[in-house]
Amino acid sequence: MSRVSDTRLRTREAAINLVAAGRRPHELTVDLIYAEIKQGSRTTINDELKLWKDEQAKADALNSILPPAVANAMMNTWTIAIEHGEKVFEQRREELENELATALQSAQELEDSLTNKQEEITSLQAQSMAYRVEIETLRNEVANSRSAADKAQAQVTALAQQLESSRNEEEQRLALAKAEYQQRIAELQSTITTQEQAFRTEIDKVTMRLEGVQKHIMLQLTEARDSTKRVEATLAKANLKNEELSVRSEQLAAKLTVQTEESRGIRAELEQACQENRQLRGEYDLLIQQHAIQTGKSAAQIEQIEAMERRAIGAETRLEDVLKRTTRPSKREKKGKSSGD
């Protein structure tokens, strides 16, 4: 509720209270009402007080005509209707004022929007002109691009023909090179097969030679054992002779010691030769297995076999030297024989 309507309502209430306090309606003044309510303008209080006095005059006239109960009921109804009308009027006026303010604000916003739209239209018109110029330029560029594209298409066609010709030439070269490589591969395979057969033949020969060397070494070992037995028999005879000839015991003992040492050396050399023979045999078997796995290393294996053969020949030579030393009588033995004679 606004302050004006509140002032009018309180003006009526103050007037009713003053009448109830004993004052007559025509005695009420603006100052008395203002002193009671202490708000509002005197003009509003004066207007409302005049209306109230007129209503009271009409009520007094009705009271003189109508019964008091009916007159009071009518006055109460009239008062309520007036108050309700004032409230509705004030509410509607506030709504209209709000709507007016909203409408004014909307109008201002529409004016601002219209100004912005006009500026946008001006800008869009300028952009439209620029776009038209740009479209015309693009049309010219498209025409130029089409002519350039036609030229490029012709060049692409020529390049495609050249590429096809080059491809055919390369395919022919590739076919010739492939045939040549296949021929060379066949020749290499034939050469490898021939070399492998030759390597196998050579290995068989080396195997036979090693077997012969092994047999020869075994024969020499047998002879060495026989020589050892002969030495042992000689030692036995020397022992018997030592028993018989106590005078020559010291000489025979020295001779026996020398022969025993030589016999031990011979046995050690024989055992070393046997060990080298077994080692050579093991290396030979290993080379045969490696040849079965890797045929490409035949040349190296042949060299190793030849080295083994040389080592076997060296061992054979050492055995021969040992046998010669065994069979050859020592200087002391010769001296003993000469002194015995």
Would you kindly provide a written description of the structure presented here, covering whatever features stand out?
The protein has 2 domains: 3-119, no CATH class; 193-340. Helices cover 91% and strands 0% of the residues. It is built from 7 helices and no strands. The chain has helices at 3-20, 30-37, 42-65, 68-244, 249-293, 298-327, 331-340. The longest helix is centred in the middle third of the chain and has 177 residues, at 68-244. The N and C termini lie far apart (176 Å). Residues 11-118 form the KfrA N-terminal DNA-binding domain. GO terms for molecular function: DNA binding.
For this entry, give a set of tags:
341 residues, single chain, 7 helices
Strand content: under 5%
Total number of domains: 2
The largest pleated sheet is described as: none
**Rg (C-alpha, Å):** 75 Å
Pfam family, one: KfrA_N
Organism: Methylomonas methanica
Keywords: Coiled coil, DNA-binding
Biased composition (Basic residues): 325-335
